Amino acid sequence: MPINRRVAAEVWIVLGLSLGQSAVYALVAIAARLTAGTPLAEQTATLNASRSERPYLDLVYQLLGIGFALVPVALALYLLSDHGRSAVRLLGLDRGRPGRDLGHGVALAAAIGIPGLAFYALGRALGITVEVQASALDTHWWTVPVLLLAAFQNGLLEEVIAVGYLYQRTRELGWDRVRFVVASSLLRGSYHLYQGIGPFFGNVVMGVVFSWFYTSPRFAAGTGEERRGRVAPLVVAHTLLDVVAFVGYALVPAEWREALGIR
C-alpha cells in the first residue's frame, strides 16, 4: 500500500474511533431532532448526565467514560511516535513553555468564550439551538472534580485529534494550511451538531481560530525547520471554556441563565 494511502487509512481509523464517530452520531441526532415534530428551541441536550442512581457506581461510570475517551489520544500519540521521535514534543504537549502556553490559552479562551456565548444566545433566539443542560450530575463530593476531569478530557481529545494529529497527517498527504483549517473546523462543528445548528457554526469559528493559531509561524516554537505549533495552549483554552460551562455556569444569576436557555 503506498504511503499516502496508508496514512489516509490511518486517519480514517483514528477518526472512526474518536471524533469522526461522534460526528456521525451527531448528524443522526440532528436529523432526529429536526424531524421530531418539536422545535429545536424546545429540545434539550445534556452534556454530563448521571449514569446511575447509586453515587459511587455513578462515579465509577464517569471515571471509566473519561478514561476510555482518552484512549484515541494515546493511539494518536503512539502512531506519531515512530522512528524514535516524541509525539508529545512534536505536538507541543511538553512542558517546554508553560508560561507562554498558559498565557496564550487564557487569551484564546477569552477570545472564544464571549463570542461563543453570543452565538449560543443568538441561536436560542432564532430557534436553531437546543437548550443545553451543562451538567445533570447530582451533587456529591466528587461532582466538581469529575466535571473538571471531563473538561480536561474534552480539551485533550479534541485538540490532539482535530488539530495536532490531523495537521501532522494531512501534511504528509500534501494538504496546505487552508485545506487543513477548513477540514479541522468542519470536523469540530460536525460533532457538536447534536446541540443544534447554532453550535455547529460557533464551533466552526472556534475551529478556524484554533487551527489557524496552531499553524501560525508567529506562535510556533523552535527555530528553522524545527519550528512547529503547540497544542498545549489549545488544550488550556478548551479546558477553561468547558470548566466555565460545566462548573462556572452555577455562579451565573438564575435569571441570566434562564434568558440564555442554560440550566
UniProtKB/TrEMBL annotation:
GO function terms (MF aspect): endopeptidase activity
Superkingdom of the source species: Bacteria
Spans traversing the lipid bilayer: 12-32, 59-81, 102-122, 142-167, 193-214, 234-254
This protein's name: CAAX amino protease
GO biological process: CAAX-box protein maturation; proteolysis
Domain CAAX prenyl protease 2/Lysostaphin resistance protein A-like: 141-243
Any Pfam family the entry gives: Rce1-like
Keyword Lipid metabolism attributed: no
Keywords linked to the UniProt accession: Hydrolase, Membrane, Protease, Transmembrane, Transmembrane helix
